[in-house]
Amino acid sequence: MSETTDTANGAPEGAKIIVGVDGSEQSIAALRHAARLGGLLGARIEVVTTWSYPIAMSPYAMTTEPSFEEIARQALDESLKDAYGEDIPAGLTSVVQFGHPAQVLIERSTGAEMLVLGSRGRGGFTGLLLGSVSSECAAHANCPVLIVR
């Protein structure tokens, strides 16, 4: 797991808003919304993206450059830039973690004030109003969930 931390924000240690990001327009909108909420609630923002190996590949046969984790980190950094430009909220932390997105977000939601997600990610069923990750998180997260359209 890769983690970057900025603790300049005066938010209480336990007050945090988790934001799930996959690079989609909806997740970038969720980032913007989380920044507004963080300011109102005095909570820091923890941005989470996940990665895993493609189904057809063995993790032991990997020799690609860059790694899947590095690609995920680049996508997260680009999402932060798209959402905030150079004005990244103080105290924001970002995490790149191996695993299924819904499982990781549900685990990380423990102790959070809120989990903020886009309504749909990069899945293939464009006609759906709610994606599988946001739906699963809404049903199982350990904190309130806000789904941004």
Explain briefly what this protein structure is.
This protein has 149 residues and is an alpha/beta fold.
Please provide a written account of the structure.
It is a single chain. By secondary structure, the chain is α/β, with parallel strands linked by helices. The protein is built from four helices and six strands, in the order ββαβαβαβαβ. It has helices at 25-41, 68-84, 101-108, 132-140, and strands spanning 2-4, 16-20, 44-51, 93-98, 114-118, 145-148. The chain has a six-stranded mixed sheet with strand order 1-4-3-2-5-6, sandwiched between helices. Helix 1 packs across helix 2 and helix 3 (101-108) packs parallel to helix 4 (132-140). Mean pLDDT is 84; it is low at 4-11 and 124-129.
What's the arrangement of secondary structure elements?
Elements: E1 2-4, E2 16-20, H1 25-41, E3 44-51, H2 68-84, E4 93-98, H3 101-108, E5 114-118, H4 132-140, E6 145-148
Parallel strand pairs: 2-3, 2-5, 3-4, 5-6
Antiparallel strand pairs: 1-4
* Main CATH class: Alpha Beta
Categorize the overall geometry: globular
Percent helix, as a range, is: 25-40%
Bin the strand percentage: 15-25%
CATH fold type: Rossmann fold
Figure out the total of helices. 4
Can you list the strand order of the major beta sheet?
1-4-3-2-5-6
Q: Taking all residues together, what is the mean pLDDT?
A: 84
Helix/strand order, N-terminal first: EEHEHEHEHE
